[in-house]
Specification:
This protein is α+β, with helices and mostly antiparallel strands. The protein is built from four helices and eight strands; from the N terminus they run H-E-E-E-E-E-E-H-E-E-H-H. The longest helix is centred in the N-terminal third of the chain and has 34 residues.
């Protein structure tokens, strides 16, 4: 009798899982890839790069970065190799700026986005305020010469990943991703 109940519960779980389809799990996978940008930075030119830069939610930028190369790892919601261009950042705890452009290798990386950072600079009415999403990011970029490491944690995407398991899409990226697939 007990075996029948366990078997019935297992069949019900498989049926419910099948009803959600591949789109649900695909959205969870994309949400998981959005949480981190992590990988090895490799310079693709003769001139060496340098970066010792970190920022906490655009409020406390510290260090300097000048990097043009490739990110090998996970970035922008995708795994693989990506162009990591025009990264020019600096910060002195309360005042700083960041500029970067990321895209597909060999493709158009677009115009670099530049915005102000630091709680003092932002409080004084910065001209180029960061986009809303970047207030929930913590960056770490370390490059010496032609090789380095990059880590960006996006807390809002972490919340979106957790909420997604309960049917919520707080970043509104599941709908967009589903529309791109069709």
């Amino acid at each position: 009798m007990r075996t029948r109940k366990v078997l019935a519960a297992a069949m019900l779980a498989v049926a419910v899982g099948g009803l959600t389809g591949c789109t649900y799990m695909g959205s969870r996978g994309r949400d998981a890839l959005d949480i981190f940008d992590v990988g090895v930075l490799v310079s693709d030119h003769v001139r060496p790069d340098f970066a010792a830069f970190m920022t906490f939610w655009n409020m406390f930028p510290m260090g300097y970065a000048h990097v043009d190369g490739k990110l090998i790892g996970v970035g922008g919601g995708r795994a693989g190799v990506q162009d990591f261009r025009h990264v020019h950042s600096w910060g002195v705890v309360a005042w700083g700026a960041e500029q970067h452009s990321v895209g597909d290798p060999g493709g158009d990386v677009g115009a670099p986005a530049r915005y102000d950072q630091g709680f003092f600079r932002l409080a004084l009415g910065a001209e180029n305020r960061p986009v809303r999403e970047s207030y929930f990011e913590c960056d770490r970029t370390f490059v010496l010469g032609w090789v380095g490491l990059h880590l960006r944690v996006k807390l809002d995407d972490l919340a979106d990943f957790v909420a997604g398991w309960f049917g919520a899409d707080i970043m509104h990226d599941d709908i967009r991703a589903g529309a791109e697939q069709s």
